[in-house]
Design brief:
heterodimer; A: alpha/beta; 5-stranded parallel beta sheet; 8 strands; B: 19 helices; elongated
Chain lengths: 128, 357
């Protein structure tokens, strides 16, 4: 069964591009739109990976990260791909046990990282 | 006569209202047409973009279907992708901009009399690191309009590391830029800018604002080779703000303890004392942990807080609790320790009650 990936990013163009690239590789991808609630999405489907930006319209990505880690979905592997990429931010993301890539990002590198994370999670038997 | 004049006025008002109404209709029509054309172009290009990244088409194939009146839309369309991508995918999009004639078009727009169009063109050309943009930046670099100055200096910085002397010259000559902009500029240049900045600092930079920025950038990139320069600033700088920046950079780089930090902890400026004790905490110098203890009794709340945080990092919980139990310990010091143990340490700070009986 295909791995399920959820993308949360305000840059809808970039999200769709990434979704298309991952779909071509056989993943089932969902892009969160502005009027959707993350909690509802997470409860509706068992996602294997969340790809998110820290700079979100109206919400701080780090707070969202903290919220996920304190929720029933705390096990969810997370890849943060963000324009907010100072050393401090990277450290804070690492504290939440999430992977980090800074924008601008090389699409190939991003896809390789996604594959690597999903492989690691499969090996560990988490969330699948 | 009066009736004639009144009739004329009413007639003129009707004509003017009609003209205004027609202009609104025209604008509305133009806006709708523009909206539909943009939407149509975007949906077409999105498919092209996906095919381009899937290696199904070459950039020139996509570009050959883009007509000259669509170049404005193409500029808007490519922007969010160019801002988010780098590497091979970025280069493919730059190739589309070249093949479609967008770069040529923007080079012409860069010389336009419309400031807004000029700024947008320069931002785009700067983003794709187009070398031909360099001669067009001078007006923007001298402009008082920040929407015009910012894209110009960022375009200059993005283009090549060789532009660093010119970037520094511009920053030295102006005072209306923010540090956030400065860090963005140097972040655009990449980590390679660090040795260049170190050399600028060692030659004796004359602008304190640029010096502060350089120290912040070295910390931003985690450039550990800056250690010797930071030591110099901590020990010998006459500018307290620069000493604070150097200590903060020391803290961010997590460099090891040296005597200059202990000296700074005795400084008369509370901000320097706070920065120094924070640097002590991040240095991991367990042997020097007790140096922070006198600062727990500091008159400044922030210094006491940072001292308690440093001690939390360097001492064992038992040591901190024995200080709390000491009846001779200062009341403010105890208050701060208690605060830090409960608020910052979280559950790990709860010590089992050993004197229950």
């Amino acid at each position: 069964m295909a791995h399920k990936i959820l993308i949360v990013d305000d840059n809808i163009y970039y999200s769709h591009l990434l979704a298309d690239q991952l779909t071509r590789l056989g993943y089932a991808v969902r892009v969160m739109s502005e009027n959707e609630e993350l909690l509802k999405l997470l409860s509706a489907d068992d996602y294997d990976l969340l790809i998110m930006e820290l700079l979100l319209n109206g919400q701080d990505g780090l707070s969202l990260l903290r919220w996920i880690r304190c929720s029933p979905y705390s096990y969810l592997p997370i890849l943060v791909v963000s324009h907010r990429s100072s050393g401090v931010e990277q450290l804070r993301v690492a504290e939440f046990d999430a992977h980090f890539l800074s924008k601008p990002v090389d699409l190939n590198q991003l896809i390789k990282t996604v594959i690597m994370i999903l492989k690691e999670e499969s090996r560990a038997g988490i969330s699948l | 006569m009066t009736i004639h004049i009144l009739t004329l006025i009413i007639f003129l008002i009707i004509i003017l209202t009609g003209l205004i109404f027609l202009s609104i209709l025209r604008l509305r029509y133009k806006f709708k047409r523009d909206y539909h054309r943009r939407k149509e172009a975007y949906s077409k290009w999105e498919l092209n973009l996906f095919s381009l990244f899937a290696e199904e088409i070459h950039p020139s194939q996509w570009a050959s279907h883009i007509s000259s009146h669509e170049l404005g839309y193409l500029q808007e369309f490519l922007l969010p992708y160019l801002e988010s991508l780098k590497g091979e995918s970025f280069e493919k999009l730059v190739a589309v901009a070249h093949y479609s004639g967008l770069v040529k078009h923007l080079l012409q727009e860069g010389g336009s009399a419309n400031d807004w169009k000029q700024a947008q063109s320069i931002y785009f050309l700067g983003l794709i690191r187009e070398p031909q943009v360099l001669p067009m930046l001078e007006t923007g670099l001298a402009s008082d309009n920040m929407f015009w100055f910012y894209p110009s200096i960022i375009a200059l910085a993005r283009n090549n590391l060789k532009t660093l002397p010119r970037v520094l010259e511009v920053l030295r000559n102006r005072s209306d830029w923010t540090e956030h902009l400065g860090i963005s500029i140097f972040a655009e240049m990449g980590e390679e800018v660090c040795p260049e900045l170190l050399s600028v600092l060692s030659k004796g930079e004359t602008s304190p604002k640029v010096e502060r920025l350089a120290l912040a950038v070295l910390a931003h990139f985690g450039y550990k080779r800056a250690e010797a320069t930071l030591k110099e600033y901590i020990l010998y700088s006459k500018d307290p703000e620069l000493q604070i920046r150097a200590l903060r950079a020391w803290n961010q780089l997590k460099l090891t303890f040296f005597e200059g930090i202990a000296l700074a902890m005795k400084h008369s400026d509370w901000e320097i004392r706070a920065a120094a004790v924070t640097a002590l905490g991040s240095s991991g110098a367990v042997d020097h942990a007790l140096l922070a203890r006198p600062l727990l009794r500091d008159s400044n709340w922030w210094v006491r807080l940072r001292a308690a945080q440093a001690m939390l990092m360097l001492c064992t919980r038992e040591e901190l609790h024995s200080m709390l139990d000491n009846p001779l310990e200062d009341r403010y010091a105890k208050d701060m320790l208690r605060y830090i143990l409960t608020r910052e340490g979280g559950a790990t700070c709860v010590i089992p009650i050993t004197h229950a009986l």
